[in-house]
């Protein structure tokens, strides 16, 4: 399997590779957090994205989603099986980086540095519990603002402007794909005053105690997807499985093209 190396930053030593034409950063969790800290401290404007097999397949059917993710300043790989697969092509990722694993460390970083965060997404019930737990675990002053993730499309820009004016340094968007990617990409310029912006999917549900994550040993074994499958309705997982199979097809097709071109 061929993995294309795309760039390397002399300043940070950060290396990027391409997976199905999408640039992905070869970073550990700690390195990612350090980049966020540096970005906020120096007043940069940084957008973050995640990829996994199913999302990469979705991106190849949705050009807008592809552009939204591929244009991100930092792109982490959050799939352990995909990390193993990329290793066969020579791309050695130190570990997978998942939104749920970044959320609390970034809250701790913000508290330590005096940064403020904005919490956007989930239901009022879940969001309220997240706000209570963040306030109790850290400080109410850590939160620049918060809003649930349900709104009419015509309200979207107004919400982005409200977030930008909140004084937040870090924005967490707890929505499903591709809604969160569309929001962050469409309003990238409006949200530029917020130094670091990332989608965290269902992380608010986990942090609020509404959803239980797989045990650590299951995560290390790369079987968290199977654990989630047993916890959620089968009909919700059908599109996920379909997209994962599409990813395998796209990857195989790319391999054939690479080998044919090489010959």
Q: What's the count of strands?
A: 9
What fraction of residues sit in β-strands? 15-25%
Helix/strand order: EEEHEHHEHHEHEHEHEHHHH
Q: Which whole number gives the mean pLDDT?
A: 84
> DSSP helix count?
12
Which structural class is indicated by helix and strand composition? alpha/beta
Q: Quick one: biggest sheet?
A: 6 strands, parallel
Q: Tell me the overall shape.
A: globular
How big is the Rg?
18 Å
Major sheet: arrangement of strands? 5-4-9-8-6-7
Helix content: 40-55%
Task: Catalogue the unreliable spans.
Answer: 1-7
As for the number of domains, it is 1
Distance between the termini: 15 Å
Folded structure, characterized:
It is a single chain. This protein has helices spanning 29-41, 53-61, 63-70, 80-88, 99-113, 124-137, 156-164, 179-186, 203-207, 216-220, 224-231, 234-262, and strands spanning 4-8, 15-19, 22-26, 46-51, 74-77, 117-121, 143-147, 170-174, 196-199. It has 263 residues and is an alpha/beta fold. It has one domain. The strands form 2 sheets. Strands 5-4-9-8-6-7 form a 6-stranded parallel sheet, sandwiched between helices. Strands 1-2-3 form a 3-stranded antiparallel sheet. Mean pLDDT is 84; it is low at 1-7.
Care to give the gist of this entry?
By secondary structure, this protein is of the alpha/beta class.
């Amino acid at each position: 399997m061929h993995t294309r190396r795309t760039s390397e930053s002399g300043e940070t030593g950060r290396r990027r590779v391409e997976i199905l034409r999408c640039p992905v950063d070869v970073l550990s969790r700690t390195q990612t957090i350090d980049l966020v800290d540096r970005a906020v401290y120096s007043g940069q404007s940084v957008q973050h994205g995640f990829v996994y097999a199913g999302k990469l397949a979705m991106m190849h059917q949705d050009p807008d989603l592809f552009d939204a993710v591929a244009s991100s300043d930092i792109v982490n790989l959050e799939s352990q099986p995909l990390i193993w697969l990329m290793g066969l092509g020579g791309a050695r990722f130190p570990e997978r980086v998942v939104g749920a694993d970044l959320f609390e460390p970034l809250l701790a970083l913000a508290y330590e540095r005096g940064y403020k965060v904005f919490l956007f997404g989930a239901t009022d019930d879940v969001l309220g519990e997240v706000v209570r737990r963040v306030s109790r675990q850290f400080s109410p002053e850590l939160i620049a603002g918060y809003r649930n993730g349900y709104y009419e499309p015509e309200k979207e820009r107004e919400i982005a402007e409200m977030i930008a004016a909140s004084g937040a340094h870090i924005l967490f968007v707890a929505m499903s794909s591709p809604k969160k990617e569309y929001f962050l990409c469409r309003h990238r310029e409006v949200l530029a005053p917020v130094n670091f912006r990332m989608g965290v999917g269902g992380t608010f549900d986990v942090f609020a105690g509404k959803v239980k994550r797989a045990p650590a040993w299951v995560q290390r074994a790369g079987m968290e997807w199977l654990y989630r499958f047993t916890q959620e309705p089968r009909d919700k997982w059908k599109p996920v499985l379909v997209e994962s199979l599409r990813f395998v097809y796209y990857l195989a097709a790319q391999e054939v093209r690479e080998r044919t071109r090489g010959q």
